Amino acid sequence: MFTLFKRFICEEDGQDFAEYALILGAIGVVAIAVIARYRNELIAAFEAGIEALRMARGG
Question: How far, in Å, are 3, 18, 36 from residue 7 at the CA level?
Fold first, then answer.
């Protein structure tokens, strides 16, 4: 029983997945916060880019 517990503690196979999941979760939270904070500015920037593409195309 003790060897099973010791092997469980020392085993690191699933550790990488958990770390990557935490990092991706943190990046997602930050991205959502930035998008929510700068929503109007982001929309204006995308609209300006779309308008510039339309003008370059001649439309």
Answer: 6, 18, 45
Q: How far is CA 34 from the centre of its chain?
A: 11
Task: Name the amino acid, one letter, at 34.
Answer: V
- CA-CA distance, 38 to 36, in Å (whole number)? 6
Does residue 59 carry a pLDDT above 80?
A: no
- Residue 38: DSSP 8-state: T
Digit-coded pLDDT (tens) for 3-52:
877 776 676 666 778 889 999 999 999 999 999 999 999 999 999 999 99
Tokens 């779309």 -> residue: 50
Residue type, 3: T
Per this entry, what is the length of the chain?
59
For the chain, domain boundaries: 29-59
